[in-house]
């Protein structure tokens, strides 16, 4: 069987914006599904709470949908949890806390994650706890 | 035929001898000019599903069953597991039909841009939808007959094996 466009399809370079679009959309879908699993909810349950059809929510969480900020906000409101966070907001949240607990969510096998802090930022804060699971 | 193997998912497609082309290549060829961005997004999606998440049911959309037609899906009762036609669709209604064999193996078929509410009302996708359903049934039957087997997580298919589409 001769090779074809299918075989070379995955070798193509793609535009950064297309890569990022899918990465963001899929990351959000994965995060929402993770929370649904935690809550013991189905996508159907989420759809009901959002007042949407199951089909529409399924589309939203496919990883290829162009979610609006409004839709993301509605999902966050229903779940009671943030799904997305901008980097500067996240940094401010950590550094403003007197007692900060940092949870390391993903520890990959065969690799270390070094967590290092600039001492000056934590001056006077003696109760810094670092929790690793 | 195998298209690409990722750490978690291996993608396959079906070669149509009569047309001298495989279904997924035909899809790529037709969509490259009209939907280049959507195709790139699909590529990235397949990569991430293949490398990180696996072919979880939740990321593939269920296809509607043909109403009132006994020959359409689902496969005969009593035979498990039930394999349904799925599709991957981007926000612009570019739809690629596929079959999620299991979490580690996916068949990519063909597709087009859906322009009507239901696949069966859309001239673009309907032929691909029909063929995808046929292929799902044939692949399922071939699995039961052990013409398609699983070996070390991937599908094992004899080189001279054919699916006959009637």
Tell me the CATH superfamily of the largest domain in chain A.
lambda repressor-like DNA-binding domains
Arithmetic mean of pLDDT of chain B: 79
The H-and-E topology of chain B, N to C, reads as EEEEHHEEEEHEE
**Which residues of chain A form runs of ≥5 with pLDDT under 50?**
108-114, 118-133
Question: What structural category do the secondary elements of chain B indicate?
Answer: alpha+beta
Low-confidence stretches of chain B: 64-82
* The CATH C-level class name of the largest domain in chain A: Mainly Alpha
- Provide the helix percentage of chain A: 40-55%
Named at the architecture level, the CATH assignment of the largest domain in chain A is: Orthogonal Bundle
Beta-strand level of the residues of chain A, as a percent range?
Answer: 5-15%
**Rg of chain B (C-alpha, Å):** 15 Å
Order of helices and strands of chain A: HHHHHHEE
Instruction: Give the strand order, joined by hyphens, for the main sheet of chain A.
Output: 1-2
Report the sheet with the most strands of chain B, covering strand number, pairing sense and barrel closure.
Answer: 6 strands, mixed
The strands making up the biggest β-sheet of chain B line up spatially as 1-2-8-7-6-5
N-to-C span of chain A:
49 Å
Tally of helical segments of chain B: 3
Comma- or semicolon-separated keywords:
heterodimer; A: 133 residues; mainly alpha; 434 Repressor (Amino-terminal Domain); 2 domains; globular; B: 166 residues; alpha+beta; six-stranded mixed sheet; two-stranded antiparallel sheet; 27% strand
Walk me through the structure.
The complex is a heterodimer of chains A (133) and B (166). Chain A has 133 residues and is mainly α. Chain A has helices at 5-9, 16-39, 43-50, 54-60, 69-79, 87-96; strands at 101-104, 129-132. Chain A has two domains: 14-79, lambda repressor-like DNA-binding domains (434 Repressor (Amino-terminal Domain), Orthogonal Bundle), CATH 1.10.260; 90-132, no CATH class. Chain A is built from six helices and two strands; from the N terminus they run ααααααββ. In chain A, strands 1-2 form a two-stranded parallel ribbon. With 166 residues, chain B is α+β, with helices and mostly antiparallel strands. Chain B has one domain (2-157). Helix content of chain B is 30%, strand content 27%. Chain B has three helices and ten strands, in the order ββββααββββαββ. Chain B has a six-stranded mixed β-sheet with strand order 1-2-8-7-6-5. Chain B is globular. The interface between A and B is medium-sized, with 28 and 32 residues.
């Amino acid at each position: 069987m001769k090779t074809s466009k299918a075989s070379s399809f995955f070798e193509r370079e793609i535009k950064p914006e297309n890569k990022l679009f899918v990465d963001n959309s899929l990351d959000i879908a994965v995060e929402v599904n993770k929370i649904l699993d935690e809550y013991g909810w189905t996508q159907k349950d989420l759809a009901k709470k959002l007042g949407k059809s199951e089909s529409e929510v399924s589309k939203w969480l496919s990883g290829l949908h162009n979610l609006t900020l409004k839709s993301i906000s509605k999902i966050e409101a229903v779940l009671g949890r943030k799904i997305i966070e901008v980097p500067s907001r996240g940094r401010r949240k950590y550094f403003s806390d007197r007692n900060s607990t940092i949870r390391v969510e993903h520890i990959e096998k065969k690799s270390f994650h070094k967590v290092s802090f600039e001492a000056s930022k934590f001056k006077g804060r003696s109760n810094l706890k670092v929790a690793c699971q | 035929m195998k298209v690409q193997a990722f750490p978690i998912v291996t993608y396959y497609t079906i070669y149509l001898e009569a047309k001298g082309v495989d279904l997924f290549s035909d899809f790529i060829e037709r969509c490259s000019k009209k939907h280049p961005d959507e195709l790139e997004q699909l590529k990235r999606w397949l990569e991430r599903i293949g490398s990180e998440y696996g072919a979880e049911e939740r990321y593939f959309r269920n296809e509607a069953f043909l109403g009132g037609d006994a020959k359409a899906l689902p496969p005969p009762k009593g035979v498990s597991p039930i394999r349904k036609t799925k599709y991957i669709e981007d926000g612009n209604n570019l739809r690629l039909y596929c079959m999620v064999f299991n979490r580690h193996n996916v068949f990519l078929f063909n597709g087009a841009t859906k322009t009507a509410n239901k696949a069966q009302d859309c001239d673009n996708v309907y032929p691909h939808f029909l063929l995808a359903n046929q292929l799902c049934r044939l692949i399922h039957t071939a699995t039961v007959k052990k013409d398609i087997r699983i070996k070390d997580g991937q599908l094992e298919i004899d080189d001279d094996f054919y699916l006959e589409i009637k």
